[in-house]
Amino acid sequence: MLKKAVNECRLTLTIHSKSPLLIKEGRYEQPESKGKMPDSFFVCRNTPSEIKTAVEKDDYSKIRFYLPGSSLRGVIRSHAEKIARTLIPEEPICCIPHNGTACKGGYKNSCVICKLFGSKEAGGRIHIYDSETQRKGKVIERYGNAIDRFTGGVSRGLLFKNKLLKEYIFTSQIIIRNFEIWQLGLLAYVLRDFNVFSGNDKPGLITVGFGKNRGFGRVKGSIGDVWITYFDRDLGRDCYELMGMGEIEYKSSKLYGFVTGDPLSGGLLVEAIIDAEAPYRKQCKVKDNLEFFKACADVWNKVVNDRKFSSVSK
Ligand SMILES: [Zn+2]
Fold first, then answer.
1. Ligand 1 centroid to 84 CA: how many Å?
2. Dihedral (Cα; 160, 163, 164, 168), 10-degree rounding
3. What is the pLDDT of residue 34?
4. 88 Cα to the center of ligand 1, angstroms
5. Are 209 and 19 in contact (CB under 8 A)?
6. For residue 296, is it within any domain?
């Protein structure tokens, strides 16, 4: 994949928790003397002793909870896989890492999912950062039954005490560097399933964290301003159509396997803002998020229907 920066899409995804949310803090260990200490705690930036003090005092005002970027990335990737896998079931366009079809080699030879999220051998295009707390909600306690690993039934007398978050809002930044337009189209479907474009307050289809079967982790997403940046040496230029790698770097499309097409016109982007300190960096705000992602989704659909992606076989 090209080393130089060509384009970039940047957006913030805000996650509203609509049911109790739990992503377990890996560093948390329940003390020997259990007392009122829970079995698990939500992931945070505090030290184990600060967590202990907070639980003992039942005061979480100093705890800085966050959603790890890796957790959100896992959720977004597996949802994108689900979308890609159901499109043409007889000619799968995404690999299944554990059944021998895992992508090997660089960007060109990767499936649609590995092109965006990366594989063992190639880095991905998408970067999903940790989501910090934007609005605090409540810390609640829920008991769960321990499951007998042998019978699959409930172990009698064993209860887990979990600390979960309720009505919290987190904000994460997502950046896709050197994108192709179809990748934004695939992402558009994931954002749709977070209920980003629904206009109502209902949770989407996507759940985050622990306890999906118990109704936990239901979230609704929303996005703020979306920015497209072009790194362009043509200093006189400040008006851009939407262009991916296949439209800008079409000469390298054979080498890297970019899908080529026409730039998306129709006034999706506003005039670029040019920073005097970095004049090659042209930042264009997306005019209307819904129109923009619909247009990208159309490109994704067309590319899939035209069989531009080769099917993944063993
Ligand atoms: Zn793959």
1. 11
2. 180
3. 58
4. 15
5. no
6. no
> Rounded to whole angstroms, what are the CA distances from 16 to 21, 84, 208?
10, 26, 11
pLDDT value at 143 more than 60? yes
Give me ligand 1 centre to Cα 258, in Å.
16
For residue 252, tell me if it sits in a domain. no
The 10s digit of each residue's pLDDT in 112-121 is 999 999 998 8
Q: In angstroms, what is the span from residue 262 Cα to ligand 1's centroid?
A: 26
Separation of CA 235 and ligand 1 centre (Å)? 38
User: Looking at this protein, which amino acid is placed at residue 182?
Assistant: W
Q: Would you tell me how many other CB atoms lie within 10 Å of the CB of residue 159?
A: 11
- Which structural domain range is residue 153 located in? 9-227
Give pLDDT, residue 62: 96
Predicted confidence (pLDDT) per residue in 174-223, tens digit: 999 999 999 999 999 999 999 999 989 999 999 999 988 889 999 999 99
Q: What value does the mean pLDDT of the chain take?
A: 91
Within a domain: residue 234?
no
Residues with CB under 5 A from ligand 1 (ion): 95, 103, 111, 114
Tell me, yes or no, whether 264 lies in a domain: no
pTM of model > 0.90: yes
Alpha-carbon distance of 165 to 174, in angstroms, equals: 23
Q: In the chain, how many domains are there?
A: 1
Q: 117 CA distance to ligand 1 centroid (A)?
A: 9
Question: 124 C-alpha to center of ligand 1: Å?
Answer: 11
